[in-house]
Known about the structure:
Layout (H helix, E strand, L loop, with lengths): L19 E5 L3 H12 L3 E5 L5 H18 L11 E3 L3 H4 L5 E4 L5 H14 L5 E4 L6 H4 L9 E6 L8 E6 L5 H13 L3 E4 L9 H17 L5 H9 L2 H7 L2 H8 L4 H16 L10 H15 L4 H18 L11
Helix pairs in contact: 1-2, 10-11
Amino acid sequence: MNSPTTHAFPTDAKTAPYRRAAVIGGGVIGISWTGLFLAHGLDVVVSDPRPDAREKVLAGLDEIAPALAALGLPTENLTARLRFEADLATAVADADVVQENGPERLPVKQEIWQTVEQAAPAHALLATSTSGIPATAIAEAMRQPERLVVGHPFNPPHLVPLVEIVPGERTSAHTLRQAHDFYTALGKKPQILRKEIPGFVANRLQSALFRECVHLVAEGVVTEAELDEIVTDSIGLRWAVAGPFRTFHLGGGPGGLPHFLRHLGHAMEAAWPGLGTPVFDEPTVARLTEQAEHAFGDTPVGELAIRRDRAQIALMRALATTPDTHAHV
């Protein structure tokens, strides 16, 4: 796993104590976090009870190494500081940060975090990558629920800048600061949510838009391929440089968002009841499956991912949001 990109990154004073990371779960998200942590010089232990975990993680790191290098991160001897430990308590015993990526089942996460809390050092940052389970619920079985925070990445974590930091009802301000500083030092763009809400923010937005996408395709207004082009050729480009509120602020001209809301807001609101409410019944799933096969089936998923990542990195470079333009661990 070699690359001509070999430059080292300076240690960030704010995250200097965080040199050893434990990654719980060796799936897609866990592999992505592992690669990012390793590329930033952390010692990483992956804990996953599956007998083939080592093989899958190493194969996954091989796959994402080119993207890490394209981001300006060092990938030479990437796995030199990587080890595997199936026993969870042993894996986290000397961790400075624990990033959990286990199954999205509340009882499983509660059991994991009970073990982690008992075995991890008192100073360790404890973060779960859950995509929707509230930290409040996960931490119910913990003695110190103030230590747990959601650090939800947008897939894949090694590439997409966003990390949603979501406190539970008892998450401490100290834990929030730890999480924000740590992810920032990794070149991420963390956002601390002001209150806990199921699904957080990015997934709720994605779900709302996808619901209308499914409706439009199911109703035969457009095909999947046509809809994707409409998004990437319009709001996708626009929102990459200015989110929805700034976009509509600009749409209001000199009067900004207030002018937009006064003149166009009510018409937009009147259209909301007409938005689709599709369901994934058999005919809808059959239509979506058939169109996906027609639009994307000729190209292996791995190749599609490479093309997506290459374009994503080019866009991030244009916007100066790649890790080598931010602070580092």
